[in-house]
Every structure is written in C-alpha cells, then in structure tokens.
Amino acid sequence: EVQLVESGGGLVQPGGSLRLSCAASGFTFSSYRMNWVRQAPGKGLEWVSYISSSSSTIYYADSVKGRFTISRDSAKNSLYLQMNSLRVEDTAVYYCARDLGRIGVSGRGFLHWGQGTLVTVSS
Amino acid sequence: QSALTQPRSVSGSPGQSVTISCTGTSNDVGGFDYVSWYQQHPGKAPKLIIYDVSDRPSGVPDRFSGSKSGNTASLTISGLQAEDEADYYCCSYAGTYRVFGAGTKVTVL
C-alpha cells in the first residue's frame, strides 16, 4: 500500500524558515516524480513544486520561486521542502503528492497524496 | 500561472447529472490533453478521479466522466449520489508548472 506521511509543519514567524519532510513507502520511491501542493485554510488547492525521479528537473510556482527549495533522498525514501522567507500568505496545509506514472509526461495527475502538514506563518 | 476558472457551486438531486466546467487558456487546458480532476471531502486529502482529460483510475465509478473542448474541460457526475457531495478541483499540466482551478462545491439536494 502506498503511503505518504508529511511532517515538519508548525507555527513560524514571518521571515522565518521551516523544512517539511514526506516519508514514502509501498512503492519504488526512486522511480516516481513527486510534488508539493498546498491549501490555505478554507481555500483551494495550489501546486507548489515538482521534482523528477532523478532530481534533474525541478519546477516551482511563481509564488514560491526563490524562497522554497524542493529536494529528495532516495536512500531515505523521502521528499523535502525547505521554506525560507516565509510570509503570512504561505499559511496552508502542505501535501506531498506522487505523480500518476513513472514514465512519459509528468503532471498527468497526482494519484497518491499524504494527509498533509499544517504550516502557520504568524507573528 | 493564473488559476483555472470553475463555477463556485453546482447542485443536483439524487440520480440527476451535474457538469462542472474548467476554463483555462491555450497555455494550459487548451494546449495539452493532461487535465485531471480531484474530489475532496472536508478534512480529507484530495482524491484523483479523472486524468488525461477522460480516464479514470482503478476503483473510480464510471458515473464520473471527463471531456475537453478547446480551452474548457468538463467533469460530469451522472446518477448523483449523496456521497458525491464534496469539493471538486480541475488541474492542468502547463509544461513547467501545473495549475489548479479554484474549486467547485457540489451539493446534493
């Protein structure tokens, strides 16, 4: 059974930093593309970042570019999101999500999701 | 990277059909056949119900169907059931980014 478990959320002041982790199990983590998606309280879903299986290709939403860094460690079956210069508008539940397939075009769909971790940016 | 446009809400009685539209541009919905749809119940993670415009993952009932014409994709729920009451989001591949719709709340009357 595929499992994605996020951790690392919490309360942080504006301008601060936080590192989120996503522990993956039940599939060959090194073969799949991964993403972070967030959802502000009472709001819709927002795609945040993408990383290819080999880490060779990385994309970010304009809203986080230059402040967030996605990475992965296949030895630890883990996905990460380093968040710096946090803003109040970054407050959200952050989900890690696995791409639908191992090959072909990425972004066809997010088949597996974690339960999310809440990040609150407030003074 | 502007959000795709969805109606805020749609409603229908049990057994009826409802359709949710998702409008983008030629840079996202219109440019690629990689539109996906997600169902989200309150307090839960989203669930993929349609990918590649009209394909369903294993286990998703065939009451859910997807289509696309030009820059607009659509999700149709046929034979509406009480458990279909949820928020629905479309999402499109757009090359170096992915973009979601603002979400549509489906109410079963």
Give structural notes:
The complex is a heterodimer of chains A (123) and B (109). The mean pLDDT of chain A is 96. Chain A has 123 residues and is mostly beta strands. In chain A, strands 2, 4, 5, 6, 9, 10 and 11 form a 7-stranded mixed sheet that branches. A 4-stranded antiparallel sheet of chain A has the order 1-3-8-7, with no helix packed on it. In chain A, a hairpin with a 5-residue loop joins strand 4 and strand 5. Chain A is built from no helices and 11 strands. Chain B is globular and about 40 Å long. By secondary structure, chain B is mainly β. In chain B, the strands form 2 sheets. In chain B, strands 1, 3, 4, 7, 8 and 9 form a 6-stranded mixed sheet that branches. Chain B has a 3-stranded antiparallel sheet with strand order 2-6-5, with no helix packed on it. Chain B contains no helices and 9 strands. Chain A binds chain B through residues 35, 37, 44-47, 50, 59-63, 95, 100, 105-111, 113-116, and chain B through 1, 3, 34, 36, 38, 40, 45-48, 50-52, 57, 87, 89, 91, 93-94, 96-103.
Quick description:
The complex is a heterodimer of chains A (123) and B (109). By secondary structure, chain A is mainly β.
Number of helices of chain B: 0
Largest sheet of chain B: 6 strands, mixed
What percent strand of chain A? over 45%
Mean pLDDT of chain B: 97
Low-confidence stretches of chain B: none
The multimeric state of the shown protein is heterodimer
CA radius of gyration of chain B is 13 Å
Total strands of chain B: the figure is 9
